[in-house]
Amino acid sequence: MYELIGVTKQYRRGQARVDALAGIDLTIAQGDRLVVQGPTGGGKSTLLQMLGGLDRPTAGSVLLDGTDLAKLSESRLTAVRGQYIGFVFQSFNLIPTLTAQENVETALVPLGVKAAERRRRAAEALESVGLGERLAHLPSELSGGQQQRVAIARALVKRPQVLLADEPTGNLDESTRDEIADLLEGLWKEHGLTFVMVTHDSALARRAPRLATLRKGRVTVTENPKAAAPTGA
Amino acid sequence: MFFTYLRRELRRRRKAALVVASGLALGIALVIVVTSVSAGMKQAQGKVLESLYGLGTDLTVTKAQERPAEGAQPARPRFEFQGGEDGEEQSGDRLMVQGFQTLADSTVATVAKQAGVGRAVGGLSLVNLKINGEFRRGQIQRGEGQSQGRPPGQGGTGGGPGDTVTGGGAAFDVDSFTLYGTDVTTPDLGPLTTSTVTEGRAFRTTETDAAVVVVDSAYAQQQDLAVGDELTVKGVTFEVIGIATADSGQSAAQVYLPLERAQTLSGSAGKVTTVYVEATDSTRIDAVKAAIQKNVPGTTVTTSADLAQTVSGSLDTAAGLASDVGRWLSYAVLLAAVLVAGLLTSSAVSRRVREFGTLKALGWKSGRVTRQVVGEALVHGVIGGALGIAVGLAGAYAVTAVSPTLTAELGASAGGFAGRGGGVVLGGPGGAGGPGAARTAAGRSVDIALTAPVSLTTVGLAVLLALAGGLVAGAFGAWRASRLRPADALRRVE
User: Fold this and answer.
1) What ranges do the domains of chain B cover?
2) Cβ proximity of B130 and B174 under 8 Å
3) Least confident of A51-60, A99-108, B166-175
4) For residue range A76-90, what is the model confidence (pLDDT) as tens digits?
5) Which residue of chain B comes nearest to A46, CA vs CA?
6) Across chain A, how many H-helices and E-strands are there?
7) Is the ipTM of this complex over 0.95?
């Protein structure tokens, strides 16, 4: 699915140069569940942005099914994001003025899905994350865990091939964290997604079959054969 | 999704939307009020000019002022009285051409032949000046050693040394009124068109030399004249056939009579003072003016634009304020409102960086995000426009309801204008004849009630400004939103 070859990302911070990623080589197969861990500033979120086509590497290639995301035009990259990749963010990133259903619908807008079909699919997606009764609720009327469920429904409603989650439980309490972790794991298994999750949470990391650790822009991958494999893969 | 998102955003940010819309509304309301007041000023000026020219007149042609010959006295009325018996009443009556400047009436035909001239008629402006009074003889007070109290002429006319004269002198009343010889064959062109016949009738086209007059209502009231009464001018008795009321307060003359009769009466046969010209195309008046100036030498051609420059007083001041200060102020306020709206929109985009970054991460193209931002700003513009039009219309209605009175001083720079041959045009009641008197006549004032008519063009302009304001404001935010990279947007809030 993904093949990263010599991916480097450098930032300028004042006069200093920061190497967020320092020549990373990484392969992620379709249906993989990869957890990315590492200290703050280690390059975890940068790696996720490269995988999601949100940013471009300074050097190297990010191949998604053989297509180098680094070389795509902005509009093509946007189309790839809209069609193939679902995102879940730590802060949920819901549109505060839209209802849960409308928030989920925003992921279908770039695909040109008709309004009625959008509504139906958004309702189904929310149903699948246990929020069938909360379609018309605004984010401010939902708990943190419910908001993250809406964000997960939004990521999955377009039936993406890849799900990228950046600290999806970072803003949640422990019990809600487990609910969300279970939900994500269940959906991964159900949909056969390629799932990459950045987390500081070691408990979550232990549940992943593969663990990538990023330190000073370099990656080390370890396998965890005890973790469950996806059913849909 | 566009409209749902738009509606929800506007509802959520009601206060911000109201602030932006109110700013735009203020600017647009000012533009409407100032534009409509300015239009009212133009209408008022037009009415003032109509009061000079009459409806349909685009230009007037008068004789150019000539310098008097070396050593010659400027023309002025002259009265001669002989000393008579003590207390004997004496009177003198003069009917004079206003300004003493006339054109041959063949000029009317010459002017009529010029390119762009539709019609031309002549008019003769006159002043009747009557002096009536008596001389009283003085009493000679003899000096020492002479008999006292002897009236002059009895026992010698000469006074001796030490004699003094006491008492005596002269008391004269001066009465004057203005007359206008009008071409009765063309009643819809010329100075009488500035008035409406409110009693009796107007001239018939056949009354070219009839002894009939139409009297201005103010003069009729002053002289207690009514339709059917008689008015004597220079020994000729005229029948008052109509009373005319000036449309804008002051008439061109106090008495109107047929041109031919006026010419005969004043000894100005074949003479006119003014040629009234109607152009075939009101947009080509300058070209007509140039043609007449070139082909009819010795004349002064005056257009309404020239006359407008002689209007002063509160109307002129207000018109100046409306066109200069008012217009710039309203555009400055509108510009400020657009800038503020733009900054607020841009600031709103800054606050929504994560929102737009998320949408871009979800696959929303920059164009779609930009459209959303511009759409919101456009709605602000529409709300501002609607508010602004409502407030502007209310303001314009208030101005019209209050109808402040403005005074136009015509030809207050007076002498100059009369001197250029416009004396006839500006000659008003109370003129006393002669160039100096013509200047006095030139300085007349007209009260005009100001209105603020709002045209569809003005409303259209307001709508355009509102939409443009919204678009410009939206462009600020849209520019920022379009440049937003999702990674930066999401990184900034981490």
Assistant:
1) 2-52+314-404+450-492, 65-297
2) yes
3) B166-175
4) 999 999 999 999 988
5) B487
6) 7, 10
7) no
